[in-house]
Structure formats: C-alpha cells, structure tokens
Amino acid sequence: MLTIPCPWCGDRHESEFFCGGAYEKARPARPETLSDEAWVDYVTVSPNPAGPLVERWWHQRGCGLWFFLERDTLTHDIRPLFDGEDHEPR
Amino acid sequence: MRQRYSIFSLARNALGFHRNWQRVWRSPPLRDAYDVVIVGAGGHGLAAAYYLAHNHGVTDVAVLDRGWLGGGNIARNTVTIRSNYLRDESIPFFAKSVELYKGLSRELNYNLMFSQRGMIDVVQTYPRLRDLTRRMLAMDIHGSTYRRISVAEVRRRIPPLTGGGPDARMPIIAAMVHPDAAVARHDAVAWGLARAADSYGVALHQNTPVRSLLRGPHGGISGVETERGTIRANKVAVAVSGHTTTITETAGLRLPLKSYNLSAFVSEPVKPLINVVVNCPDIGVYLSQSDKGELVVGGETDPQQSFRRGIKEAVFEDAAAAMLDLFPSFKRLKLLRQWGGCLDFAHDASPIVSATDIPGLFVSAGWWGGFKAVPVGGLTLAHLIATGRPHPLIEPFSLKRFERLEFILESGTTSTR
Ligand SMILES: Cc1cc2nc3c(=O)[nH]c(=O)nc-3n(C[C@H](O)[C@H](O)[C@H](O)COP(=O)(O)OP(=O)(O)OC[C@H]3O[C@@H](n4cnc5c(N)ncnc54)[C@H](O)[C@@H]3O)c2cc1C
Ligand SMILES: [Zn+2]
C-alpha cells in the first residue's frame, strides 16, 4: 500500500490517486520538424528503469491536483518533486 | 534422451528404491564462445533452445539465467492457455500455440499435465459483451472457438457462482465459452523443455547473470558480459521477460516496453469444485482449481510501472473483494500463498519477436500472458535465429510495426481489462 504525498493535501492513501505514468520529455513544440525516428521514439518509447522513475500523479479523488514525484520501481521509495508554480519536476 | 520416462522406467526405478534416476539435465562448464547465446531460461528462452536444436539442428547454444532455471515468470503464472484474441495477426499465432501444447508432452517425453478443460468468461456489462462477440466473430474466421451461453447455463456449469444475481450491483448478463482453453503444469513446461534441449547438447547455465550486451567493431552483436566472464557469440537472443529494457539499453537499444507487476494467490486445497477456468473481466478477477484442489486466483495489474515480484496489498484486496462478489461462499476459504512477477508490456499490448537494428541481436518480449505462447514463441524465435527470416506467424510482431505506427492493438492480451 503506497502513501502518496500530495503537495496540497499531504500524505494520502494510494487508492485516491491515478498514476499518469512516467514523465517523459515534453511534447515537441513543432512535431513536423522532427525526423520520423525521433517522432516514433517520442510516441512509443518511455523510460522503463529498474530504479528511480519520475512520474506524474493526479489526486483524482481528492483535491484534483496533478504533480510529480519520483518513485523507485524496485523499492517503491517515494521522493516528492513538486515545484509549486511551474508544474515541472525539479 | 538419455533416460526415457515410461511406466517401465518408473517400475524399474521403484524396484531400485529410486536411487538410479539420472540427472534431468547436465551442468556443463561455461565456455567462452557459442554460436548462439540465449539470455533467460524461462519458457521462451528454453523453448527457443529446444526448437533451435530439434527443428534446425543448431546445438552450439548456451542458455544463461541469472537465477535458477525456471525461477522467473514461468514459475509464477496462473497457467491459462487460450486463443480468444481479437486481431487477425494474434488469433492464428495463439491458436498454433494451443495446438503445439497438445502434442508437447509426448514430444518431450515429459508429462506437462496439459488439461484442455475450457474457459468461461462471465460477462457483466454490455460493452464487454460487444467486445467478446466481436472477438467470437474474428475467432470464427481463424478456426478458434468461442460460443455464447445463457446465464442459467453458466450457473449450471459453475455451481459456486452464486453472486451477480438480478439485484446485484453488476448482474451477470451472459457468458462466453472458449473450449480450446487449457491449463498445464508451469514448472513441467520449463523442466521438460530444458531436459529435451539438454539432450541435444544445448548448454544450460544457471546463476549466470548477464550484465551487458557486447558489440563488435562493425556494430553487430559480439557476445555478452556476464558475472562469470565474457562469452562471445554472433547471435544473441534476449528472452528475459520484464527485464528486457535493462539488457537492451546496455547496447543503446530503446524499446517500446514498460514493466509491470502482476500477482496471484492460492487458497487451501478443497474438493473438486470448478472444472473450467473462470474469467470475470468486468470485475477484474479470474480463477481455476489446480489438481491439488487449491483455487488459483489472479487479479489486476498493479497500475504503476514496477520491477517488483511481490503482491501489493491494494491489488490483492481488490481481487479478493471481486472474487467474493461473484463467489460469496469462498469467504470461508483460507488463502495460503501469494506472489507476483515482473512482466513487460509493449506499447500496443502485442508481443515482440523480432530482429533489431543491431545485427545478430534478437528480442522476444512483451509477453503479457506469455505462458500460453511458450511453444509458438520458441518455435518462431528459433526460426528467426536460425534462418535470419521471420516465421510467417511472427512477421506482424516485429519491431518494424512501431516505425510505421502500425500497431496491433489487442484487447485479448490481459484476461481482465
Ligand atoms: C501472476 C502471473 C500470472 C500469469 N498468468 C498467466 C496465464 O494465466 N497465462 C499466460 O499465458 N501467462 C500468464 N502469465 C505470464 C507468463 O508467466 C509470462 O508471460 C511468461 O512466463 C514470460 O516468458 P518466460 O517464461 O520466458 O519468462 P521468465 O520465466 O520470466 O524467464 C525470463 C528469465 O530471464 C532471466 N533473467 C532476467 N534478467 C536476466 C539477466 N540479466 N541475465 C540472465 N538472465 C536473466 C530471469 O531470471 C528469468 O528466468 C502470468 C504472469 C504472472 C506474473
Ligand atoms: Zn490533494
């Protein structure tokens, strides 16, 4: 059972949240300028480390905030990463 | 086979107080070069080794595993074998696997305890019924069988299914029968394939973790770096289920795979109660009864990426609650064991059996529900390694499909959602 640190509500039970998946590189500003390989890579490949992974989480059944955290895929160790205003991980 | 198993060998060895059985496979010394190295002694790695030797005469093969043989997902699954998939590419592939399984005990001279008992999908929502009806029509084209039955019929065939009545939150509205579905003993599949591969001279090396892939001066694969030293090979196949990216990334190859944890639990043994595999996709639980009498129950995937091999309490609770919804009498059962495994899932939920951009490197991955596919996955991977060309059954499952964004989006991959 994970305890997820919501930046607004504090520590809450995992079942209140929706995990939005691994945080990937930001969407390319101008996709039409990318090579096919780079676009396919952006669309289909996302990080899959056996270790720390930056994720987006949504406090769906709570305050509704989207935020970032780092979770270890081997140990479930969680490190908050919220940066207040700009909603990008630190 | 150095030692064949039969009623006579059993009788003879009983008279000898079982002291004269030979070892089932050898543990040969590790050499520093082989024609083919297969990373991962799970179902797919061992089946590929077996078919390389049996169908293609390629026997200078080493299978390397970081742990013991058959200690990965092949030992952790809930043994359901089925071909009720949706896509024209998938159905013939999985139907072939069911067919191969049927003859495999005899072929390997090893009792896989294959039991074609059929599966029943219990349907509780109309969108599900539409999806399964669509699958039925697609399966019909490819000679796999799926048939709709009434609620009364499903209750007759599964007596403990007493929940989901007209007043329930989600009443049962229909069911689908998949008579081709089967179960087999998972360990026996690994051990039988290992024994047969070994008898052809394939070298099985346990406790040999692969750290990285090695590339030669022209970019092609040249071998692997293991914790027991460097092993050279011009052909390397990665069949490590769940851990694929941890190996391919050592050669700079990025793959559209994510790893997740799937788990299961078993009850205490009880008298024969359920003689089919029961799948309840709308509430996310499925179960069957083992030959020992235990109910083997599986639930949903843990929703976040994970390399863990345990069970998460939240997932376990959901599965148990879902089971009790439909099988209220199971409330009194004691649960004995629970466990999990780490599996990888491709971007389009279909498997990957493919050559790669690195010459000589092959991958077999994305095996979600890959126990059912062990024979056909091994057969087609062996064909690819031996001939350099994809077997017609796996042509659609190459990595090329991602380059063209021609996904094989498959709704039949997970038995639950
Ligand atoms: C709970 C659960 C239930 C399931 N239920 C079903 C089901 O009902 N039906 C079905 O069809 N499928 C099911 N599956 C899926 C099925 O078990 C897998 O898809 C299949 O076993 C994967 O292929 P494999 O047997 O080759 O993998 P594995 O047995 O996992 O083999 C991979 C091997 O690679 C080794 N390895 C990993 N990293 C390294 C390294 N660096 N160096 C050397 N070796 C390495 C591992 O030790 C392992 O032995 C289930 C899985 C789980 C976890
Ligand atoms: Zn919150």
Task: Please indicate the count of domains of chain A.
Answer: 1
Characterize the quaternary organization of these chains: heterodimer
Integer tally of domains of chain B: 2
Distance between the termini of chain B: 43 Å
Within the CATH hierarchy, at the fold level, what is the topology of the largest domain in chain B?
FAD/NAD(P)-binding domain
Q: What Rg of chain B is obtained from the alpha carbons, in whole angstroms?
A: 22 Å
Task: Look at the structure and name the CATH superfamily of chain A.
Answer: Folate-binding superfamily
CATH superfamily of the largest domain in chain B: FAD/NAD(P)-binding domain
Spatial sequence of strands, sheet with the most strands of chain A: 3-4-5-6
The portion of residues forming beta strands of chain A comes to 25-35%
Which H/E pattern describes the elements of chain B? HEHEEHEHEHEEHEEEEEHEEEEHEEEHH
Q: What's the CATH first level of the largest domain in chain B?
A: Alpha Beta
Please describe the biggest sheet of chain A, giving its number of strands, its sense, and whether it closes into a barrel.
4 strands, antiparallel
Structure description:
Chain A is mostly beta strands and 90 residues long. Chain A has one domain: 2-Layer Sandwich (Folate-binding fold). In chain A, 10% of the residues lie in helices and 33% in strands. Chain A has one helix and six strands. In chain A, strands 3-4-5-6 form a four-stranded antiparallel sheet, with no helix packed on it. In chain A, a hairpin with a 3-residue loop joins strand 1 (3-6) and strand 2. The longest helix of chain A is centred in the middle third of the chain and has 9 residues, at 36-44. In chain A, 14% of the residues are buried. In chain B, the strands form four sheets. In chain B, strands 5-6-4-14-15-16-13-17 form an eight-stranded mixed sheet, sandwiched between helices. The longest helix of chain B has 19 residues, at 90-108. In chain B, strand 9 and strand 10 (221-226) form a beta hairpin. Chain B folds into two domains: 14-110 and 185-256 and 348-404, FAD/NAD(P)-binding domain (3-Layer(bba) Sandwich); 119-182 and 259-345, D-Amino Acid Oxidase, subunit A, domain 2 (D-Amino Acid Oxidase, Chain A, domain 2), CATH 3.30.9.10. The two termini of chain B are 43 Å apart. Chain B has 417 residues and is α/β, with parallel strands linked by helices. In chain B, helix 2 runs parallel beside helix 6, helix 2 packs across helix 9 and helix 3 (90-108) crosses helix 9 (374-387). Chain A binds chain B through residues 1-2, 14-15, 19, 21-22, 36-37, 40-41, 43-46, 48-50, 53, 55, 71, 73-74, 76, and chain B through 243, 245-246, 254-259, 303-308, 312-314, 344, 347, 402-403, 405. The complex binds flavin-adenine dinucleotide and zinc ion (ZN). The site of zinc ion has 7 residues of chain A, from loops.
